[in-house]
Specification:
Bound molecules: S-adenosyl-L-homocysteine, magnesium ion
Helix content: 25-40%
Number of strands: 7
Number of helices: 7
Order of helices and strands: HHEHEHEHEHEHEE
Shape: globular
Strand content: 15-25%
């Protein structure tokens, strides 16, 4: 499904104006390529913001695919609803408002693709909560995993970032050593990790 380029431009302008951290241009290209190649039918996005990455995914997914997307901030949810409505893809996108940690525990679907892009300190918690809800061909994409370069550098991060950096390292370690996933790290944008399910039994 092709969406108007003007809609994405409008969203980029909005994000710049109101300081909404949407995915980088290169990150978006990688996301689109991954969705196009893996043809997921059931998609979960954690961290909708204003729906920019949601609509990038919607544009490249199969026509009969569906997205569940979660956002904590009610104002962003409103804005996302506005843009999603304009896209005409609203019947394929279910937008849930609230804390992803809580919502994930109550989801009963099986997902072919998950895009993690909410609270940076919670990625490992999100992954552990969705691990049992992934199909054997699932792909998990995580944005901002290098967090301003601190995650793979020896530089001491400012105090306020220390926990996030430590936890992102734990996330990367976990998915890299996971027997059922193969993980590739891309040094583009703020860092993107893509974990592919190896297709073996997940227990
Ligand atoms: N995926 C978007 C950008 C998301 S920015 C894009 O690339 O277009 C990260 C978003 O996660 C923010 O809007 C923030 O409000 C949301 N967020 C932060 N903590 C969250 C939580 N605990 N549960 C759900 N959403 C959360
Ligand atoms: Mg991001």
């Amino acid at each position: 499904m092709k969406l108007p380029i003007t809609l994405f431009e409008e969203m980029q302008d909005y994000a710049a104006k109101y300081h909404v951290p949407i995915i980088s241009m290169e990150g978006a290209e990688l996301l689109v390529r991954t969705v196009t190649n893996s043809k997921p039918l059931s998609i979960l996005e954690i961290g909708t913001a204003i729906g920019y990455s949601t609509l990038k995914i919607a544009e490249s997914m199969p026509d009969d695919a569906k997205i569940v997307t979660i956002e904590l901030d009610p104002e962003r949810v409103e804005t996302a609803r506005f843009f999603i409505k304009q896209s005409g893809a609203e019947d394929r996108i279910q937008l849930l408002t609230g804390d992803a940690g809580g919502i994930l525990s109550n989801l009963n679907e099986i997902f072919d693709l998950v895009f993690i892009d909410a609270a940076k300190g919670q990625y490992l918690d999100y992954f552990k909560k969705i691990e049992t809800k992934l199909s054997y061909r699932a792909v998990v994409i995580a944005d901002n995993v290098l967090f301003r370069g601190y995650v793979d550098s020896d530089a001491v991060p400012p105090r306020r970032y220390r926990t996030i950096v430590k936890r992102l390292r734990e996330y990367l370690q976990y998915v890299s050593n996971h027997p059922h996933f193969e993980t590739n790290l891309f040094r583009i944008g703020d860092g993107v990790a893509i974990s592919y399910h190896r297709g073996t039994q997940c227990e």
